[in-house]
Amino acid sequence: MLNKILHDNQLISLCYVSRSRIDEIKALEEVSDIAIFASSNNVQLSVTGGLLYTVAHFAQVLEGPQKQVEELMSKIEKDPRHYDVTTVDMRPIKRRKFPNWAMAYSGPSPFLDRHIKPLLSPFVTTTQGEELIDSLQERLLRFITGETAGEDAQPTPKLHLVGGAGPIETSPGQEDDRPLI
User: Fold this and answer.
1) Right CATH number for 11-152 from 3.20.20.240, 3.40.1550.10, 1.25.40.10, 3.30.70.100?
2) pTM of model > 0.85
């Protein structure tokens, strides 16, 4: 895990990528179950985020108080349904990118796999990594909100979101500076 960068109540965004162990035949049901469980669990933790599954890989953005995100990430790293779990970014944030979703998930997207795979390469420079992470987070947000187009559009018909849990409560003394949408 990355070193502690802030105090426990500071909002952070953490992005990780991993390789899937889920059997392709069971994937739709199993990953949907993951998203449903995460949605319920994340509400209790004041964590928001988005999950992307590409058959070969997972990518996930988690947002919330540092302590809760780090504890959740510790559990995620031990999940046997994936391996090579790599935290590719952890930074302080003032606003959540996924304020309306305890866990947004829109179904499998093999077309986005080429944006995840390079993040697992040991040959990516820091600058390239930062650009890849920013691009991946933006694509994940667009994909989940149904705004994908062009090269990343997927042929599967419907977008289904899991985890629109309403406002996320903040801890006493913690400022909620999410945008009012």
Assistant:
1) 3.30.70.100
2) no
